[in-house]
Design a protein that fits this description.
DNA-binding, 6-stranded parallel β-sheet, alpha/beta, about 775 residues, 9-stranded mixed β-sheet
Length: about 775
DNA sequence: TGTGGATGCCTTTTT
DNA sequence: GGCATCCACA
């Protein structure tokens, strides 16, 4: 391995320094994975054993790809035993090995977010709290947030300030919910995603002997995407590296976009201070994008105050400017993108798979999808429901979970009456009360003989419970004898799931059946692969351990090849495409409406930075004047971020109009003529191109009669065509003649109110003056 | 106990 | 607009 031939100067320096701690700040497209790969290869070459190296990533996909690359460089045998995986998978492995120390069994279940929410919900219900005030989703994320900051229920409840704060927000019982939640997880022998990290951190903290073992084991620690680590992850890395200090973290503060999940950008910003003589390496040469794209992205991110100074540069061709396109509506935006895709595909011979359309929110995908479909462009949408989140798959998995961990209450609740076996809510409630009152008795034992344990049910219900217990027990027996595939197959048929799914032959049910079949195939494949690798331990428990941490990102299917990719900007991180389209570049969408602080805004800007830097050769940015959102047409201004990019790198929709400090789009003339109303009522908000432009909440909500919307917004035939006249979409103005379905024609005398409360006083020819709420009036222009 | 129409909500989401 | 959830009923 000759590093001189493989790496540039700074990459090589970063690879070769291994005496102590280091941070590698890797700009977008600077060969970060390459450096990590060769660093590990280099360590192996220097004589370090593979099993002494720990490499942590955030996704299974990243881990797998890096493992494959390392295997190619050093060969399979040298890389065998490498500890490479996600934080969650590595630490769940450690926790299973040490489970008894922290009061779990090695078969503990991993609750996904849906399980956590369901548990929170039942706790709220059992505590007799109002679920309108205590929303399970919000409570669950607050619990997650507390855990991410290593705040246990005990610590939380010892701080009176927390209680005062919760009281102020009308949720004084949060602390008790949190405590109950942790207790119930424990009783169910279950950990949520956060617990996998939290328990690891606490285990190391409380048991120096255990920590010492792992410190010896992991002689060298590498962490990818360090800008995305949260407090717990940082704490674990610190503890493991404390003894030898041989740790290397890699990341890019400019691409930190997960603070809403607890990621702390300060972890990477301040990492150097955590170790004495910590070396800092910067990878600044971008090998992905044209100079124009890199420069444009730099000029954007320069507007952020909080960052590690660096100069990313490209030595590839200058390339063409980023094209900024505005359209009247979101529909036309979709067609503008589709038209351009056809252009680059036909004229420049760019393959569809080298093209991606990126958006801020998943909700934007629908319109784009429609435009691409009607234009005959093959596409694939990332995100949405993953295979393992589908109801029928979760049902099957719940049975499997119950087999491995009969205390798993969320799984029990899911399957006890699915398929329907006459065990209704009341019976379940009565049963669960007794289960909770007897934490030392296995739930299955109570189900098998409910009357003996005082479950307050009739004989008929007791019999149904008994039968259910027998079913599960027969699965347990099967699991003693058989491999994962045979158990899963037996469950699918004997539980009645297959019969239920086969019962009706509607289209959606057909796919449910296929999904279950596909799931069985996946179990089979898992077993095959293990056996092929010489590992004959193909018990269900092994399959389940893997499956609970798997996501859809990991399942790339061959039939998805050569299609345009549609995804959120978040999902695009780490990927690259020849052509990138960034759509919906509007105020209140990108940056998001939810932005509340300078910090939030900087994160949105980084998100935009991530989006731009996905492009290798060409990037197009679009924004629409009107957009159908949450059932309403909303109007918005171009994103402030467009003004952050040095305009030397942009091709603007109307160059002449750009100089004055704001993008004035061609439709604004039209706008002024039609929207006297807006001028009169919102002049300070909509037409002030100065500071007012960037104020929050500047969307004008225009109630639109539903039918009319569809008719008037269908794009004509091609996207380039001038926009169709938006008849009754934009709102109405004083003096205008209108028509009402009951009152006939009339003239608007006055318009008052805001948003949904907007009213019009109308003088009808035949009915005289009436005051109508625009929201309901269904007026059309006469 | 299961269903259906009304009601409410709504960013991003590596595990 | 779309989806999940909930209460009212059969």
């Amino acid at each position: 391995m000759n590093l001189d031939e493989l790496l540039n100067e700074s990459q090589k320096a970063a690879v070769e320094y291994n005496d102590g701690a280091s941070v590698i700040v890797a700009g977008a497209g600077s060969g970060k994975t390459r450096v990590l790969t060769y660093k590990i290869a280099y360590l192996l070459e220097q004589g370090m054993m593979a099993y002494n190296i720990l490499a942590l990533t955030f996704t299974n996909k990243a881990a797998r790809e890096m493992r494959e690359r390392i295997m190619k460089v050093v060969g399979p045998s040298a890389s065998r035993g490498l500890w490479m995986g996600t934080f969650h998978s590595i630490f769940s492995r450690i926790l299973r090995a040490e489970a008894e120390i922290i009061g779990f069994t090695p078969q503990f279940t991993i609750y996904d977010t849906a399980d956590s929410k369901a548990l929170v919900k039942s706790i709220i219900k059992e505590m007799g709290l109002d679920d309108k005030v205590y929303k399970s989703g919000a409570i669950q994320s607050k619990i997650s947030n507390a855990k991410n900051h290593l705040i246990t229920p005990h610590v939380y409840n010892s701080n009176i300030a927390n209680y005062a704060e919760d009281k102020r927000y009308n949720t004084p019982e949060f602390g008790r919910i949190y405590e109950a939640y942790c207790r119930r997880c424990r009783e169910a022998n279950a950990m949520d995603f956060d617990d996998l990290l939290v328990y690891t951190a606490f285990l190391f903290k409380q048991r120096p002997d255990v920590l010492a073992r792992y410190q010896e084991r992991f002689q060298y620690i590498l962490v990818d995407e360090y800008q995305d680590t949260n407090t717990v992850q940082h704490s674990i890395v610190m503890q493991l590296a404390a003894k030898y200090g041989r740790v290397c973290v890699v990341g890019d503060d400019a691409q930190s976009i997960y603070s809403f999940r607890g990621a702390e950008i300060d972890n990477i910003l301040g990492f150097q201070r955590c170790f004495e003589n910590c070396k800092l390496f910067k990878l600044e040469q971008n090998y992905r994008s044209t100079q124009t794209i890199v420069n444009a992205a730099n000029s954007l991110i320069a507007k952020n105050r909080n960052q590690i100074p660096k100069t990313v540069y490209s030595r590839l061709s200058v390339g063409e400017p980023i094209e900024v396109v505005n359209t009247y509506s979101d529909f036309e935006e979709g067609y503008a993108v589709a038209k351009d895709i056809q252009h680059v595909a036909n004229k420049r011979f760019v393959a569809y798979e080298d093209i991606a359309v990126l958006y801020r929110t998943n909700a934007q995908s629908r319109v784009l999808e429609e435009a691409l479909r009607k234009s005959g462009i093959p596409y694939k949408i990332y995100g949405g429901l993953s295979f393992y989140q589908r109801k029928e798959i979760k049902d099957v998995i719940a049975y499997l979970r119950l087999i491995i961990n009969p205390s798993d209450e969320e799984a029990l609740k899911r399957v006890i009456n699915y398929p329907a076996r006459g065990i209704g809510d009341t019976t379940q409630q009565k049963l669960l009360t007794v289960v909770h009152d007897n934490p030392s008795v296995p739930a299955l034992e109570i189900i098998a003989d409910p009357l003996k344990y005082g479950v307050d049910v009739k004989n008929a219900a007791a019999g149904k419970l008994q039968k259910f217990a027998e079913l599960i027990n027969s699965f347990l027996d099967e699991n003693e004898q058989q491999d994962a595939y045979h158990v899963a197959e037996r469950v699918v048929f004997a539980s009645g799931i297959m019969a239920d799914v086969s019962a009706d032959t509607s289209v959606e049910n057909l796919s449910r059946k296929e999904n279950i079949q596909e799931f069985l195939n996946a179990v089979h494949e898992f077993c095959d692969q293990k056996v092929n690798n010489g590992d004959n331990d193909i018990r269900l428990v092994n399959f389940l351990n893997e499956v609970s941490l798997i996501t859809d990102q990991d399942t790339d299917k061959p039939e998805d090849k050569n299609t345009v990719t549609l995804m959120t900007v978040h999902a695009a991180k780490g990927l690259e495409f020849t052509n990138i389209y960034i759509v919906g570049m509007e105020e209140n969408l990108f940056p998001s409406m939810m932005v509340e602080s300078e910090r939030d805004l900087e994160e949105e800007r980084r998100l935009f930075y991530v989006a731009i830097t996905r492009a290798k050769e060409r990037c197009m940015i679009t924004y629409a004047k009107s957009r159908f959102r949450n059932g309403q047409t909303q109007f918005s201004n171009p994103s402030r971020f467009l003004y952050d990019i040095d305009k030397r790198y942009l091709r603007l929709p109307n160059d002449a109009s750009f100089g004055g400090g704001g993008i004035v789009d061609p439709y604004s003339m039209f706008d002024n003529a039609q929207c006297t109303l807006h001028n009169a009522q919102f002049s300070s908000r909509t037409h002030d191109r100065g500071e007012g432009l960037f104020k929050k909440r500047e969307i004008i909500k225009t109630p639109v009669p539903k039918q009319t919307h569809k008719g008037s917004f269908k794009p004509v035939s091609s996207a380039s065509k001038a926009p169709t006249s938006p008849q009754n979409v934009m709102g109405f103005y004083v003096g205008e003649r209108v028509e009402h379905s009951t009152f006939g024609q009339g003239k608007i005398l006055e318009i008052t109110g805001d948003g949904d409360n907007r009213k019009a006083r109308i003088d009808f020819d035949d009915f005289g003056e009436k005051q109508l709420l625009l929201k309901y009036a269904r007026l059309t222009k006469a």
